[in-house]
């Protein structure tokens, strides 16, 4: 049964998304931290690919994602630094879009809680200002996250990851 993405605004600077997956936490964690797995599902709506997915998974390590439109070849990307890693339950990192360097870094906290073989993912993004949070919401980012999480569940979590 597909699960829906729950989006809330816990403060004027934060966006929180929650989704439950029918999979163990270690598998969901691997899908968020191993480049070969990330580039298979973190694509947003149909018509996008991820030609760059670099992850140096250690505290102080960097990551960089670049997406490309199949329709016109346009690209956009994000980069950041890992601040805290507690495998397989928590990752804290910064996030900055390439195209809007003046937006500052968002602080993102991913938490994975497993109960009876099901994992609840909570992703909280804290922005520098309410205006930046609102601007991020207007990009349709939560729709893209929902499409990506649907793909994660449909394409990776229905079969063993390895």
From TrEMBL:
This is ATPase. Residues 22-155 form the Activator of Hsp90 ATPase homologue 1/2-like C-terminal domain. Pfam families: AHSA1. Gene3D superfamilies: 3.30.530.20. Belongs to the AHA1 family.
């Amino acid at each position: 049964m597909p699960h829906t993405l729950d989006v809330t605004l816990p403060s004027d600077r934060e966006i929180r998304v929650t989704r439950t997956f029918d999979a163990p936490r270690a598998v969901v964690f691997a899908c968020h931290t191993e480049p070969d797995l990330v580039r298979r599902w973190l694509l947003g709506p149909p018509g996008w690919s991820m030609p760059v997915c670099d992850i140096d998974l250690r505290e102080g390590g960097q990551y960089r994602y670049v997406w490309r439109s199949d329709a016109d070849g346009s690209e956009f990307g994000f980069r950041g630094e890992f601040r805290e890693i507690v495998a397989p339950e928590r990752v804290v990192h910064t996030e900055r879009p390439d195209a809007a360097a003046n937006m500052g870094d968002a602080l993102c906290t991913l938490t994975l809680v497993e109960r009876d073989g099901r994992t609840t993912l909570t992703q909280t993004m804290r922005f520098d200002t309410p205006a930046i949070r609102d601007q991020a919401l207007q990009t349709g980012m939560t729709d893209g996250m929902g499409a990506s999480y649907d793909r994660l569940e449909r394409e990776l979590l229905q079969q063993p990851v390895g």
